[in-house]
């Protein structure tokens, strides 16, 4: 992969890169489309990264659908697929870790300790191998996107980190490789994340600016779904990921919920433009 990427760069081409863990869905393919619109060639990776899974998480049973994935990527027009195995990425004696301090310990990082250390380490390695002009990530994982942007800035990486919109099912559920774990009752209940954030969006549209009240309303909606066990619902500054008490510049309302054995996350982006607050689900 390094050799191919080096050759491509020598031709003056600008590489677009889409890292994934496979089990591809329309969310991943939207990143591919953004990359294809701006770069040539486009390289995708599929690597279920063991170091970002906790000891009691679903690494072993994470869905793996390599053949269907590679067909989808080819049909979409991706030029190269990089699918290393774990020993290639983490040979015996591997010792170097990357950690973005201050952004990695809160929210997802509090529940999934060590998760972001695994993410930033593997993403840095992938960016180093491919050295793309632009790398594409989804806002579905908003904290991850923010952390990777910080890493790119702090380490003077040449790759621009692009964060793309969330792709949803028709009923609002954010697409995720883990949605296949949901049974039909759980699948219905899973829309509660979207509905709670959509409620927040409506209240902001009606002029609500008090972050504590918005957060309380989100929590109340999550609690009302009997199959949902809320883990957190927070309203934070999109840059620092610190809690806010009033809406300002750019904020994120982030939720994590357990439904059965499945953990789901979602978020609402709230941005101030000329004194008005615009929301993106
Ligand atoms: P994953 O394979 O889950 O690690 O995701 C690979 C990339 O796809 C990450 O940048 C995710 O944020 C992004 N992604 C996953 N689900 C969605 C979605 N529903 N909409 C947009 N991007 C997504």
Structure description:
It is a single chain. With 281 residues, the protein is of the alpha/beta class. It has 2 domains: 163 residues, Rossmann fold; 104 residues, Pantoate-beta-alanine ligase, C-terminal domain (Pantoate--beta-alanine Ligase, Chain: A,domain 2), CATH 3.30.1300. 37% of the residues lie in helices and 21% in strands. The protein has 10 helices and 9 strands. A 5-stranded parallel β-sheet has the order 3-2-1-4-5, sandwiched between helices. Strands 6-7-8-9 form a 4-stranded antiparallel β-sheet, covered by helices on one side. The protein is globular. The two termini are 35 Å apart. Bound molecules: adenosine monophosphate (AMP).
List its traits.
binds adenosine monophosphate, alpha/beta, Pantoate--beta-alanine Ligase, Chain: A,domain 2, 37% helix, 10 helices, Rossmann fold, five-stranded parallel sheet
What is the secondary structure topology, with strand pairs?
Blueprint: H1 2-10, E1 16-20, H2 26-38, E2 42-46, H3 66-76, E3 80-82, H4 86-89, H5 108-111, H6 115-130, E4 134-138, H7 142-154, E5 160-164, H8 184-189, H9 192-205, H10 211-223, E6 228-237, E7 250-259, E8 262-273, E9 276-280
The structure holds adenosine monophosphate.
Residues 20-21, 27-28, 30-31, 137-138, 140-141, 164, 166-167, 174-177 line the site of adenosine monophosphate.
């Amino acid at each position: 992969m390094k050799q191919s990427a080096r050759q491509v760069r020598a031709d003056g081409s600008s590489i677009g890169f889409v890292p994934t863990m496979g089990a591809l869905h329309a969310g991943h393919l939207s990143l591919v489309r953004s990359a294809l619109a701006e770069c040539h060639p486009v390289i995708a990776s599929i690597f279920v990264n063991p170091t970002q899974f906790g000891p009691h998480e679903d690494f072993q049973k994470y869905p793996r659908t390599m053949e269907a994935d590679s067909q989808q990527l080819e049909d979409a027009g991706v030029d190269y697929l990089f699918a290393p195995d774990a020993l290639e990425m983490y040979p015996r004696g591997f010792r170097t870790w990357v950690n973005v301090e201050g952004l990695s310990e809160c929210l997802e990082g509090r529940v999934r300790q060590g998760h972001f250390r695994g993410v930033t380490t593997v993403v840095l390695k992938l960016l180093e191998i491919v050295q793309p002009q632009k790398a594409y990530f989804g806002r579905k994982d908003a904290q991850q996107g923010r952390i990777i942007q910080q890493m790119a800035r702090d380490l003077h990486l040449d790759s621009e980190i692009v964060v793309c919109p969330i792709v949803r099912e028709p009923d609002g559920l954010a697409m995720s490789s883990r949605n296949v774990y949901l049974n039909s009752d759980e699948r219905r209940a899973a829309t509660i994340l979207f509905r709670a954030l959509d409620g927040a969006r409506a209240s902001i549209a009606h002029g609500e600016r008090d972050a504590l009240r918005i957060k309380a309303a989100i929590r109340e909606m999550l609690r009302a779904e009997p199959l949902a066990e809320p883990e957190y619902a927070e309203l934070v500054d999109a840059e620092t990921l610190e809690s806010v008490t009033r809406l300002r510049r750019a904020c994120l309302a982030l939720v994590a919920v357990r439904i059965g054995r499945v953990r789901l996350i979602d978020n609402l982006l709230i941005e101030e433009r000329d004194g008005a607050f615009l929301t993106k689900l």
